[in-house]
Design brief:
The chain is α+β, with helices and mostly antiparallel strands. It has helices spanning about 30-40, 145-155, 205-210, 230-240, 265-280, 330-340, 340-345, and strands at about 1-20, 25, 65-70, 75-85, 90-95, 105-110, 115-125, 130-135, 160-165, 175, 190-200, 215-225, 255-260, 290-295, 305, 310-320, 320, 325. Strands 1, 2, 3, 4, 7, 8, 11 and 16 form an eight-stranded antiparallel sheet that branches. The protein has a four-stranded antiparallel sheet with strand order 13-12-14-15, with helices on one face. The longest helix is centred in the middle third of the chain and has 14 residues, at about 145-155. The radius of gyration is 23 Å and the shape is globular.
């Protein structure tokens, strides 16, 4: 079936092992990470493909490798499975047509052998050190979890990891990292790093800085969902609407936009730009998070939104699904490669 896919491209900033307390790179690369991961997941039970636990990060559930395939071009399609929480193995849902206080709740039990969650997809081009997140109907692209997944793989499972083989079974201590390709390999205490950032139009920050004196208004907008309940309620109250009223659905998304009549300094612009760049994925459980920031510039006909600077695009892809939920990896990788000239034109 043909479905519309939304692709966002990312570039690799750090991948490998670095000196402690510095940015001095020692060894490792994106290609070796993928090669190691591909070997590691072969014939491995799904439950053992997570590289971190929920205890390792605040308010974060584990991410698993659901599928990983490559083609003759050396490109990969990675499908991750992002675990979502349950209440002692149960999932509760509320009738969207019920009124507040009616308690019309259905509780479904999840089999212990199944992991509740959702898939996310990544088209990876290691030779170019880039990848694309691929979204169909899910608003979450999985990028924050992917960074955790890769970082912890480098930390615990790559070819460079040295473990104490004499330790307790299943609880081997990591002694450090070693590059066997070096002339005199030794165990070193290095820092594994994986960091990727959205690809953007070159010169975007420079344009804003050079035109800072012409900026007369800063814009912010967002879609408020159930995760932004506190901010949403506060905005409703400002206009005299309470969420308990029937014309307000607590589960709906609401578009919000506001304007500030200010002329930011260059320091302000750098700060706003850096904040937006660091939190661009919008997968934060933060009621104060705003998804896009824009500027009105004297002499310019339109608003200058930061999101418009991203290397992204929407494409119609003929894919296959399994059980209507998960996209078959081979079908997705195949159609991406077939349309690669068109798709990759957005990053040129």
């Amino acid at each position: 079936m043909v479905e519309t896919a939304n692709l966002n491209f990312y570039e690799i900033i750090n991948c490998g092992y670095y000196e402690r307390g510095s940015e001095l790179f020692r060894y490792g690369n994106f290609q070796s990470l993928l090669t190691n991961l591909h070997t590691w997941v072969q014939n491995r039970p799904f439950e053992l493909t997570k590289t971190y636990d929920s205890d390792d990060y605040k308010n974060t559930m584990p991410t698993y490798c659901f599928d990983l395939i490559s083609n003759n071009n050396g490109n990969y399609l990675l499908t991750t499975w992002n675990e979502t929480p349950t209440d002692q193995g149960n999932v509760a849902s509320v009738n969207r047509n019920s009124n507040v206080g009616e308690y019309d709740v259905d509780v479904a039990e999840i089999d212990d052998d199944y992991v509740l969650g959702y898939p996310t997809y990544f088209w990876i081009l290691p030779e170019q050190e880039i990848f694309a997140t691929i979204r169909f109907n899910n608003p979450l692209n999985g990028h924050p979890n992917l960074k955790r997944f890769f970082t912890n793989f480098l930390s615990k499972y790559s070819q460079f990891v040295v473990v104490d083989e004499d330790g307790d079974e299943g609880n081997h201590e990591i002694l450090g990292y070693r590059n066997m390709d070096e002339r005199d390999p030794s165990i070193e205490q290095l820092v594994p790093k994986f960091h990727s950032m959205p690809m953007r139009e070159s010169g975007s920050l420079g344009f804003l800085l050079s035109n800072s004196e012409r900026i007369y208004k800063v814009l912010r907008k967002n879609k408020l969902s159930h995760r932004s309940r506190e901010l949403k309620n506060r905005l409703f109250e400002e206009v005299g609407i309470l969420e308990r009223e029937n014309n307000v659905d607590a589960d709906n998304e609401y578009k919000v936009k506001y304007e500030l009549d200010i002329s930011p300094t260059q320091e302000n612009i750098r700060s706003v730009y850096d904040y937006w760049s660091q939190n661009i994925d919008g997968e934060r459980d933060d009621s104060n998070y705003w998804s896009d920031i824009g500027f009105k510039i004297s002499g310019e006909s339109g608003d200058y939104w930061l999101s418009s600077l991203l290397k992204k695009g929407s494409f119609d892809l003929n894919i296959q699904r399994h059980e209507e939920e998960v996209v078959v990896a081979s079908s997705l990788l195949g159609v991406l490669e077939e349309q690669s000239d068109d798709i990759l034109s957005i990053i040129e």
